Amino acid sequence: xxxxxxxxxxxxxxxxxxxxxxxxxxxxxxxxxxxxxxxxxxxxxxxxxxxxxxxxxxxxxxxxxxxxxxxxxxxxxxxxxxxxxxxxxxxxxxxxxxxxxxxxxxxxxxxxxxxxxxxxxxxxxxxxxxxxxxxxxxxxxxxxxxxxxxxxxxxxxxxxxxxxxxxxxxxxxxxxxxxxxxxxxxxxxxxxxxxxxx
Length: 198
Ligand SMILES: [Zn+2]
Prior knowledge:
DNA Binding (I), subunit A, two-stranded antiparallel ribbon, binds zinc ion, two-stranded antiparallel sheet
């Protein structure tokens, strides 16, 4: 196998795209068949990895080399447009990934600010960089994310102060009660932003 090089991912994609993601011999597509990239002139016979020597084939046609004869003349060259489309598609995917990473980062920051406010209102100690023993247990990450998403970080953290007041007046007890109460505060403030307590 010395000297043999595999077809690059980029070339594979270009060939698949050029061939419309179907077998050039029998015309079938996934998920009916699995597609592979086939060398017209075998590597053993000196064929290279350039797109002109590559076709999309299903595994069965590739294994049997098929009784059908491939119309070589029907294979169009890979156009600059196809190359550009591939580059743009890669760039688009990278932007999407960056967007998701930023959104994730923002969610973590918002969660931390909510937890900081909770820790401050409910007198958590800091030990080894972690909050310990708040008077009311911290809500779960999922609960915090949902509150922030629904009401916004400002409203959600403001509501913690209102909750803490009620808690000090013994109006509520425990984490489950507190979270229910928090939802109630936020719903009320949302439906009546001017009125109510603040
Ligand atoms: Zn086939």
